[in-house]
Design goal:
Radius of gyration of chain B: 22 Å
CATH topology of the largest domain in chain B: Rossmann fold
CATH superfamily of the largest domain in chain B: HUPs
Distance between the termini of chain A: 66 Å
Number of strands of chain A: 16
Helix content of chain A: 25-40%
CATH topology of the largest domain in chain A: Rossmann fold
Largest interface: A-B, 93 and 91 residues
Oligomer: heterodimer
Strand content of chain B: 25-35%
Number of domains of chain A: 2
Shape of chain B: globular
Order of helices and strands of chain A: EHEHEHEHEEEEEEEEHEHEHEEH
Largest sheet of chain A: 7 strands, parallel
Strand content of chain A: 25-35%
Distance between the termini of chain B: 55 Å
Helix content of chain B: 25-40%
CATH superfamily of the largest domain in chain A: HUPs
CATH class of the largest domain in chain B: Alpha Beta
CATH architecture of the largest domain in chain A: 3-Layer(aba) Sandwich
Number of helices of chain A: 8
Number of domains of chain B: 2
Bound molecules: flavin-adenine dinucleotide
Shape of chain A: elongated
Chain lengths: 330, 267
C-alpha cells in the first residue's frame, strides 16, 4: 500500500514548522486512507521523538559519516528511503535544504513537485495545493497530475496534530554511500557554515520587528532603527532594496524570497509595501508604517501609520518610548 | 570556463496590486499596460556569470525558452556582452510547470558545446516555483546547489557562497554544476550602456523551434502538465490604515508611540 511521507532534513531545528509538517502529513494520510511514515535524517532527539509520537512509523536514515547535510548524498538517501516506501505524497519543510532538494526528489521518484504550499486538499482524486503566485498578488490552486508529488510546506501555514497515545516504531536504515559508485557524491562539499545573529532571536520567531527600506537612503539610519528596536525589544528587518544596497545583511530580508515573519508588531520604515514584501508579513498581527508618501501601498496594508520623514520621527519616537517604558515601570 | 545562463521573461512583477488583473480563462495574469522584463533573479544570475568571466577566461551563452518577444531579454544580455544567445521559441505552452521548461532547456543544452557551469535564477517573479534549476540538474545528471550569491574560480572547480536559513555556507564544487542564484549586494545587475544596447541588435541570435532541438510540442506540454493551475484568484486584501492624529508633528509622534507601546507592553 502506498504511503504519505514526511521528511525531516539534517540541520533543521525543532519548531512550529516541524510540528506543522508532521501534523499535515497526518491529516493528508487520514484523508487518503493511507499510513504516515516519517523519514528522518535528523540527529535531533527531540525531532526523532516528536516524529515517533506523530506518525505511524519512523524510518531514521543514517549514513556511516555523521548527519551533516550535503546536497548530493542527502538527496540519494532520501530518494532510496522514499522509493522503498511507495510514496504517494512526500512532504518537506521550508528550510533551505528542503527547498533545494524537493524538485530533485520529485524527479528521481518519477513524480512531480510543488513548492510553498499553504494548504493541501487531499479529498479528491488528485492532490491539490494552494499557493501564492505573482509575488503574492494572487493565489493559485495547483493540481499534481503525476504522482508521487513532493511538496514543501510554508512554515507556520500548517497546524500541529495532537500526540498519539502510542509511539510509532523507529527503524534505522544505514546507507553506504561510498559503495554506490555515484560520482556526484563528492562533486559538491559544504566546507563552512556561518551563523549570523546567533545571539538574537530568529526573525521568524520575533514578537516585534522594526524594518527599514530604501527610504532610509543608506546604512547609517539603520543604526537609529537598531536603537529604536532595542528600546522596544524588537529585532531588525529590512526590505530587499535595503539588503541589495548592502546596508544590512541579506539574512534580514523580509518577504517572498526572504524571511516570512509573524510578529505581534511589524513597524515598516521607508518601505513602500511591494506585494513581495507584504508576502513576508502576511502573518503579522499589527503592521504600522512610517513613510513620506501617503499613497504608498504599505498604508493599505497596515493598521496605523504616520506620514512623515523618518528623519523627523525616529529620534523623538525612540525617546518617547523610553519615557513610556520608564513611567510604566514606576 | 564555459558558462551558461538561463533567462526568463516575465510580466513586470512590480506592477502595483491595484493594477493587477487575472485572465480567468487563461488562468494567468493579464498583461494590461505592464511591461515584459527579465526576471530579476535571472539578472542576478547573469551578473554572477559576468563577474566570473571577468576572473577567468571563458564565454557566456544565454539561453531562453519563451515566446517571440522574449528575444528582448537575450538582446539585453547581448548588450551586457554575453558571447552567444539562443532562444527556443515557446509555441504557447503554459509558463506554469517548470518541468516543461527544464525539459526544453536540457534539450537545448545538449545541442550546445559542454558547459562547466549553468546558472539560473532561484525563482521567477510570476509563478515563483523555484524548481527549474533542480529539475534541469536532474535531467542533465549534474549536481546542483541553490540560493548561491557568489561564485569564484578555484583549482579544479569553483567555490560557492550560498544563503541559508541561519546565515551562509561555503561550498567547493567540481564542474560541471548547476547553481540557482539569489540576490545580494554582490550581484546587483549592471545596466547596459545605450551604445551597447544599439549594437546588441546587430549581434547574432539563434532562434530554435522545439523540433530543432529534438522535441515536439506535445511532449513538452505533457511534461509541463505534471502540475497544472486549476484556479487563480486575486482577492484584494486591504486593511484600513488609521493615520495618527494631531496638529503638530510632536502630537502625531506621541500618538504613534502610545500605540506602539500598547502592543509592546502586552508582549
Ligand atoms: C521575485 C521577486 C521577489 C522579491 N522578493 C522580495 C522580498 O523577499 N522582500 C522584499 O522586500 N522585496 C522583494 N522584492 C522586491 C520588491 O518588489 C520591491 O522592489 C522592494 O520590496 C522595494 O523595497 P522598498 O520598499 O525598501 O523600496 P521602495 O519601493 O523604493 O520604497 C521606498 C519607500 O520609502 C519611502 N521614503 C522615501 N524617503 C523617505 C523618508 N525620508 N522617510 C520615510 N519614507 C521615505 C518612499 O515613499 C517609498 O515608499 C522581490 C521582487 C521580485 C521580483
Amino acid at each position: 500500500m502506498p504511503n504519505v511521507i514526511s521528511c525531516l532534513l539534517p540541520g533543521v531545528d525543532f519548531d512550529r514548522a516541524v510540528e506543522g509538517l508532521l501534523g499535515e502529513a497526518d491529516r493528508v494520510a487520514k484523508q487518503l486512507g493511507l499510513r504516515h511514515v516519517a523519514v528522518t535524517c535528523s540527529s535531533s532527539d527531540v525531532i526523532q521523538q516528536y516524529a515517533a509520537s506523530h506518525s505511524d512509523r519512523v524510518v531514521s536514515v543514517q549514513s556511516h559519516d555523521d548527519l551533516d547535510y550535503q546536497p548530493e548524498s542527502c538527496l540519494a538517501m532520501l530518494d532510496a528511503a522514499c522509493a522503498a516506501l511507495e510514496p504517494r505524497v512526500v512532504l518537506l519543510g521550508q528550510d533551505t535544504y528542503s527547498q533545494e532538494l524537493a524538485p530533485r526528489l520529485g524527479y528521481r521518484l518519477g513524480g512531480s513537485s510543488i513548492g510553498d504550499a499553504q494548504q493541501i486538499d487531499a479529498d479528491g482524486d488528485r492532490i491539490r495545493v494552494h499557493r501564492s503566485v505573482y509575488g503574492g498578488k494572487a493565489t493559485a490552486v495547483v493540481q499534481a497530475n503525476v504522482e508521487p508529488v513532493v511538496i514543501w510546506l510554508r512554515a507556520r501555514a500548517f497546524s500541529p496534530e495532537p500526540e498519539r497515545p502510542n509511539a510509532a516504531p523507529v527503524e534505522t536504515e544505514h546507507f553506504d554511500l561510498d559503495g554506490s559508485g555515484n560520482a556526484n557524491f563528492q562533486a559538491t562539499q559544504i566546507v563552512q557554515r556561518q551563523h549570523e545573529s546567533a545571539a538574537g532571536v530568529r526573525l521568524e520567531d520575533a514578537q516585534a520587528i522594526v524594518s527599514g527600506g530604501r527610504g532610509l537612503g543608506g546604512p547609517e539610519p539603520f543604526d537609529e532603527l537598531r536603537k529604536l528596536a532595542a528600546v522596544i525589544g524588537a529585532e531588525l528587518g529590512a526590505s530587499r532594496a535595503a539588503c541589495d544596497s548592502g546596508w544590512v545583511a541579506p539574512g534580514l530580508q523580509v518577504g517572498q524570497t526572504g524571511k516570512k515573519v509573524a510578529p505581534e508588531l511589524y513597524l515598516a520604515v521607508g518601505i513602500s509595501g511591494a506585494s513581495q514584501h507584504l508576502m513576508g508579513i502576511a502573518d503579522a498581527k499589527v503592521v504600522a508604517a512610517i513613510n513620506t508618501d501617503a499613497e504608498a501601498p504599505i498604508f493599505r496594508h497596515c493598521q496605523f501609520g504616520l506620514v512623515d520623514d523618518y528623519r523627523n520621527v525616529i529620534g523623538p519616537l525612540t525617546e518617547r518610548l523610553v519615557d513610556l517604558k520608564s513611567t510604566s515601570n514606576e | 570556463m564555459n558558462l551558461l545562463v538561463c533567462l526568463k521573461q516575465i510580466l513586470d512583477p512590480e506592477v502595483p496590486i491595484r493594477d493587477f488583473r487575472i485572465d480567468a480563462e487563461k488562468l494567468e495574469a493579464e498583461q494590461g499596460s505592464a511591461n515584459l522584463v527579465t526576471n530579476i533573479f535571472c539578472e542576478n544570475a547573469l551578473e554572477t556569470a559576468l563577474q566570473l568571466r571577468d576572473r577567468c577566461d571563458g564565454e557566456i551563452t544565454a539561453l531562453c525558452f519563451g515566446p517571440e518577444p522574449a528575444e528582448e531579454v537575450l538582446r539585453k544580455a547581448l548588450a551586457l556582452k554575453v558571447d552567444h544567445a539562443y532562444l527556443v521559441e515557446n509555441p504557447g505552452i503554459s509558463q506554469y510547470g517548470s518541468s516543461g521548461a527544464a525539459m526544453v532547456l536540457a534539450a537545448a543544452i545538449e545541442k550546445l558545446p559542454e558547459f562547466d557551469l549553468i546558472v539560473l535564477g532561484r525563482e521567477a517573479g510570476d509563478w515563483g516555483e523555484g524548481q527549474t534549476a533542480g529539475l534541469l540538474a536532474e535531467r542533465l545528471g549534474m549536481p546542483s546547489v541553490s540560493f548561491v550569491d557568489q561564485i569564484e574560480p578555484i583549482e579544479g572547480g569553483v567555490r560557492l557562497r550560498r544563503q541559508t536559513d541561519f546565515g551562509s555556507e561555503q561550498l567547493t564544487a567540481q564542474l560541471p554544476i548547476v547553481a540557482s542564484i539569489t540576490n545580494s549586494d554582490t550581484n546587483l545587475p549592471r545596466i547596459p550602456k545605450t551604445r551597447d544596447i544599439m549594437l546588441a541588435h546587430r549581434k547574432p541570435l539563434t532562434t530554435w523551434s522545439l523540433e530543432e532541438i529534438g522535441l515536439d510540442e506535445q511532449s513538452v506540454r505533457a511534461a509541463a502538465s505534471a502540475t497544472e493551475v486549476i484556479s487563480l484568484n486575486a482577492p484584494e486584501k486591504t486593511a484600513a490604515c488609521e493615520f495618527v492624529a494631531g496638529d503638530s508633528s510632536d502630537e502625531r509622534i506621541n500618538d504613534f508611540a502610545e500605540r506602539v507601546f500598547k502592543i509592546i507592553e502586552s508582549l
